[in-house]
């Protein structure tokens, strides 16, 4: 079988939109399978616990309910819930923060459900949620291996991103202009989250929105120091040799294009890293609205 030229995957509104798609098939690839996805709760800049979930890739209509649960001895209580009816979209719920371990549960009453990883929250607006094991889970997480991939050239002092990363930004903003969207600004913290994930995928020869140590893209964004925000998404790709090639692949995939053309997003981080195995080059885009 011929090796595909590249692969794509994206997350939108805190949820996975698609499984890897071969670049050669991107233009005609079908929509992703209907499903619901939950993101771990985190503390906002206003000191509230916020959790989000999404229903994506669906053609029918359903009531989507998201619940924040607190992990305690005995049955875990629901501390806040919210619901929304529609085909696809995101539901967000928030409450005043009390330190503890929380997780998100989502269901659409069409047979789809999901649960996020648990997060231990300290209620510090600038704090980063730390994964918390369940009562029966044995700790298995190990530190992320230090990237062994050949790093891209660091950006010059006072700028954000390398030449290739900023060329992706230029191409993305050109596409957004065609759709009437304002240009995205290259954010240093989102760029760090994106580059670190590309470098980790290149170093450890994998392709996924979930890091080898179990972190989600929101975990990586928060770890990079990004706080606040009202919406987030991630696109990843591997194997495309140039900024033009990867942007074209993303724009020919409905889920990835939807993230790029979401006019609510105001910030982006682009990270590209090269490795010695697998697809040799890995691309990540992290989006945020703030």
Give the proportion of residues in helices: 10-25%
Assembly level = single chain
Strand content: 25-35%
Strand order of the largest sheet: 2-1-14-16-15-13
Q: From the alpha-carbon coordinates, what is the Rg to the nearest angstrom?
A: 19 Å
In angstroms, what separates the terminal alpha carbons?
45 Å
Please tally the helical runs, counting DSSP H or I stretches of 4 or more residues.
5
Mean pLDDT: 78
How many β-strand stretches?
A: 16
Secondary-structure element string: EEEEEEEEEEEEHEHHEHHEE
Major sheet: 6 strands, mixed
Shape: globular
Question: By helix and strand content, what is the structural category?
Answer: alpha+beta
Q: Segments where pLDDT lies below 50 for 5+ residues? A: 1-5, 13-32, 125-153
């Amino acid at each position: 079988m011929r090796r595909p030229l590249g692969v794509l995957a994206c997350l939108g509104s805190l949820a996975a939109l698609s499984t890897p798609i071969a670049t050669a098939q991107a233009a005609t690839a079908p929509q992703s399978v209907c499903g619901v996805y939950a993101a771990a709760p985190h503390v906002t800049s206003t000191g509230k616990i916020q959790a989000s979930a999404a229903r994506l890739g669906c053609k029918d209509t359903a009531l989507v309910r998201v619940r924040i649960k607190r992990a305690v001895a005995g049955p875990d209580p629901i501390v806040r819930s919210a619901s929304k009816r529609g085909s696809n979209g995101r539901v967000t719920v928030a409450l005043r923060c009390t330190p503890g371990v929380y997780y998100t549960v989502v269901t659409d009453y069409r047979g789809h459900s999901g649960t996020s990883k648990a997060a231990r929250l300290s209620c510090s607006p600038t704090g980063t949620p730390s994964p918390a094991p369940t009562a029966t889970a044995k700790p298995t997480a190990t530190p992320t291996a230090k990237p062994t991939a050949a790093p891209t050239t660091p950006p010059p002092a006072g700028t954000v991103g390398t030449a290739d990363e900023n060329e992706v930004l230029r191409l993305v903003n050109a596409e957004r202009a065609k759709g009437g969207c304002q240009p995205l600004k290259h954010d240093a913290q989102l760029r760090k989250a994106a580059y670190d994930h590309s470098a980790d995928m290149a170093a450890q020869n994998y392709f996924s929105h979930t890091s080898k140590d179990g972190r989600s893209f929101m975990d990586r964004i928060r770890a990079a120091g990004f706080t606040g925000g009202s919406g987030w998404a991630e696109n990843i790709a591997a194997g495309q040799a140039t900024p033009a090639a990867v942007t074209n692949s993303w724009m020919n995939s409905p889920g990835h294009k939807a993230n790029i053309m979401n006019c609510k997003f105001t910030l982006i981080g682009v990270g590209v890293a090269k490795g010695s195995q697998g697809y040799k080059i890995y691309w990540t885009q992290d989006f945020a609205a703030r």
